[in-house]
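Summary of Year 1 activities. Much of the first year was spent building the evaluation harness for sequence design. The harness presents a backbone, in tokenized form, and records the residue chosen at every position. We chose the following record to illustrate the format because it has been used consistently in internal testing since the harness was completed.
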């Protein structure tokens, strides 16, 4: 059901939707976007998938820059509401204070042995198409559309920014993405699948009893089949959904943020994409966080603050020139 939520009602509704109790203090301490301004919550956009629209917290007379936020969760968990409990709340708040609208969609996850691919990337393209179709109603500035994604959401965001919908058998018109920000994103799935820590986990899971093995077999969940039995098909999927395969000189300005000791998505995933983008002459920057792991584990307050600044500056500096000039 679609609703426009004011500050108090929005806060209560989201608390009930996510956890019921206990998050109010957490939200307040972490400056959750739901506590500020208005939110249109639970908007259908593609099949059963819904999205939330966080409107600017200031009056914007002209078109509104728009940021598409894609949550993480390893393609198996996560939801659109986590925009309120992630590591970018201050950045999102600052962008809304600068006149940005933020769109946070759910997307298809692995369920009951069914791979999330290609449905998850279809959902992301559908979210971009929803922004295009509803630009007039929400006064979205289609010349100032950016994407911010973390972890699995970063992989999907990079794909949507780099590849045309037709590459994934979609007939949506292509909407130009002005910039993309990938935070500890998987960019080369084949290399990630062969990473030492991932191999170790797969070996441990393989030794578990049958029923437990089936529930924890992430590889089977992501592929939808046993990749050991169909290696050629598995390799095709790994290549098709790797953003690095689509890196070109036409790629939109790309900011990559990654901890150097990330044991879930190794730092090399961003480093190699940065090298490829640089090789082909695409505007990009890699911001490394020394000694920081996945989801910014081990990050200092100074490093966390720096991330907010990097995200905000990239969005403000790489939107449309006309939009930047009016702020």
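For this record, the design step produced the sequence shown next.
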């Amino acid at each position: 059901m679609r609703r426009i939520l004011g500050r108090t009602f929005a806060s209560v509704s989201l608390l009930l939707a996510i956890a019921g109790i206990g998050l109010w203090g957490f939200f307040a301490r972490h400056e959750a976007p739901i506590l500020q301004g208005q939110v249109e919550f639970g908007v259908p956009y593609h099949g059963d998938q819904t999205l939330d629209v966080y409107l600017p917290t200031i009056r914007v007379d002209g078109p509104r820059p728009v940021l598409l936020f894609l949550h993480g969760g390893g393609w198996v968990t996560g939801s659109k509401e986590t925009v309120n409990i992630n590591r970018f709340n201050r950045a999102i708040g600052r962008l809304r204070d600068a006149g940005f609208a933020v769109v946070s969609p759910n997307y298809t996850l692995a369920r009951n042995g069914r791979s999330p691919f290609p449905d998850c990337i279809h959902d992301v393209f559908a979210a971009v198409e929803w922004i295009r179709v509803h630009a007039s109603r929400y006064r979205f500035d289609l010349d100032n559309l950016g994407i911010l994604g973390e972890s699995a959401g970063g992989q999907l965001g990079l794909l949507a920014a780099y590849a045309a919908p037709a590459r994934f058998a979609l007939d949506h018109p292509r909407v130009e993405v002005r910039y993309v920000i990938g935070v500890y994103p998987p960019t080369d799935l084949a290399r990630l699948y062969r990473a030492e820590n991932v191999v170790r986990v797969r070996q441990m899971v393989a030794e578990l009893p049958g029923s437990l093995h089936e529930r924890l077999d992430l590889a089977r969940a992501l592929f939808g089949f046993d990749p050991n039995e169909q290696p050629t098909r598995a390799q095709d999927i790994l290549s098709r959904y790797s953003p690095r395969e689509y890196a070109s000189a036409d790629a939109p300005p790309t900011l990559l943020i990654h901890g150097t000791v990330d044991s879930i998505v190794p730092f090399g995933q961003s480093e190699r994409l940065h090298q490829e983008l640089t090789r082909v002459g695409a505007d990009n920057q890699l911001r490394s966080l020394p000694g920081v792991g996945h989801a910014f584990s081990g990050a200092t307050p100074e490093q966390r603050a720096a991330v907010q600044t990097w995200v905000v500056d990239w969005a403000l500096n790489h939107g449309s020139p006309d939009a930047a000039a009016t702020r």
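Confidence is low (pLDDT under 50) at residues 6-13, 323-327. Quantitative recovery figures across the full test set are reported in Table 2.
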